[in-house]
Amino acid sequence: MLPKLLLATNNQAKVHEYRHLLQNLPCEMVTLAEQGITTQVVETGQSLEDNARLKAVVLAKQSRLLALADDSGLEVDALGGEPGPFSARYAGEAASDKDRVSYLLAKLKDVPGDKRSARFRCVIALATPDDEVEFCCGECRGFITFEPRGEQGFGYDPIFYLPELGKTMAELSLEAKSQVSHRGQAAREVYQKLDKLTGGKYFKQNSPNEKREF
Predict the structure, then answer these.
(1) pLDDT at 202
(2) Measured in whole angstroms, how far is the alpha carbon of residue 91 from the centre of its chain?
(3) Residue 211 belongs to a domain
(4) Which among 71, 97, 157, 195 is annotated as catalytic?
(5) For residue 78, what are the domain limits?
(6) Element (H, E) at 138
(7) Mean pLDDT, 10 residues at a time, the chain of 214 residues
C-alpha cells in the first residue's frame, strides 16, 4: 500500500501544480480538505524557510502523515528584495492576485525596464509527524513587465517575464512552466529528500521529469 503525502496548502492552483510536478511519485497525494483538516497555519516567519517549516511541521503532526508545504516569494531588486516572504500579503490580507499585481506595478511605475529585475524563490519543507524536516529550494530569474500578460498560472505569474523564452510565466503551458519555474526546480529535489526521510522505504531518487515505473 502506497504512503500518503499531504499537500499542506489550501491554494488549489498550487495543488494542481504539485500533482503535475510529482505525478510519478509512488504515493497517494492528498489535500487538507480530503483529510478533513481545517487548521489555518499563520505564517509568522520572517523567511520562506521559516514559513514552509512551520506549515509542514504543524500539519504533519496533526495529520500523522508526511507533509509537503511550501512558501514562495517574488523578490524585486528595485524594491530591495520586496515583497519576499510577504508576497501573498503585500497588498493586504484580503487582497486578490489581481490586487497584488496592481499594487506591485504601481510601486514600480517609475522604474525603467532594465531596472526591473526580479526572481521567484520557492522553499519546500517536507516533514514527518515526528518533526523531521528536509528542505528543497528553487529559484527563477526574470523581469517585471509594465502590464499583465497571459491567462495561465497564478499570483505574480502574469508580470514575471522570462527573457530567454520571450514570455511571462502566465503565458506558459503547465508543462513548460514546470521545466523552468522556481517550484519546478524545488520539486525536482523532493524525490531524493523523501527517500532520505523514509529511509529508502518507499521513494526513489529520480527526477520528476523521468517516466519510470516504480
Answers:
(1) 64
(2) 19
(3) no
(4) 71
(5) 4-197
(6) strand 133-144
(7) 89 92 91 94 89 96 96 96 92 92 97 97 96 96 97 94 97 93 94 87 53 30
Residue 157 lies in a domain: yes
* Alpha-carbon Rg for the chain in angstroms: 17
Is 78 a member of any domain? yes
CB 138 within 8 A of CB 197: no
Contact 145, 168 (CB under 8 A): yes
**Contact criterion met (CB below 8 Å) for 31 and 7:** yes
Instruction: Give the separation between CA 126 and CA 143, rounded to whole angstroms.
Output: 30
In terms of pTM, does the model score above 0.90?
Answer: no
Helices (H), the chain: 12-21, 48-63, 97-107, 174-180, 182-187, 190-197
Domain membership flag for residue 206 = no
Burial-class residue 62 by CB neighbours within 10 Å (0-12, 13-18, 19+): middle
In three-state secondary structure terms, 31 is strand
Place of cell 529585475: 117
> From the CB of residue 102, how many other CB atoms can be counted at a distance below 10 Å?
15
Active site residue 157: no
Element (H, E) at 6: strand 4-7
Q: Look at the chain and report how many structural domains it folds into.
A: 1
Question: What is the C-alpha to C-alpha distance for residues 98 and 73, in angstroms, rounded to an integer?
Answer: 16
CATH of the domain at 13: 3.90.950.10
